[in-house]
Amino acid sequence: MYTTTVRTDFVAQHYLTVPNPGPEGELHSHHFRVELEFRGPELNEYDYLVDIDDARAALADIADRYTDATLNNLPEFSGYNPSVERFARVVFGRVTERVADDTVTELTVTVWEDDQAAAGYDAAV
Predict the structure, then answer these.
(1) What is the residue range of 41's domain?
(2) Where do the TM regions start and end (predicted)?
């Protein structure tokens, strides 16, 4: 299985909406790092798994969308607790809409909210 990984980082804000979230229930910022790992068993005719420029462009769109944003105020989080797990799922959906190389069969999105804590979402594409 081949893999290609790209990543970016940005600062965004959120507050958790679960019962008794403690200090996480107050608006606060995270320096998020988003990693995309594309996987597939074959390369294309140019010996690429994924066009890395397309992958980087998808990440640039993610950073543009979420830099300095309050996640709770965005429609993709409406009705959801804006956890780092939910954020990973949201990023997965946005990336798979944009990057659709036939050789990519799986995508893992990992969202780090700091240097010690991350959550991910992976599935077939």
Answers:
(1) 2-124
(2) none
In the block, residue with structure tokens 């992958």: 55
The SS3 assignment for 71 reads helix
Contacts of 77 (CB under 8 A, 6+ apart): 71, 86, 90
CATH number at residue 48: 3.30.479.10
52-66 and 84-98 helices, crossing angle to 10° = 130
Which element (helix H / strand E) includes 57?
helix 52-66
Joined tokens for residue 3: 């893999």
How many domains would you assign to the chain?
1
Q: How many Cβ atoms sit within 10 Å of the Cβ of residue 91?
A: 26
Tokens representing residue 49 in the block = 């798994």
Contact 101, 44 (CB under 8 A): yes
Burial of 47 (0-12, 13-18, 19+ CB in 10 A): exposed
- The pLDDT tens digits of the residues spanning 102-111 come to 999 999 999 9
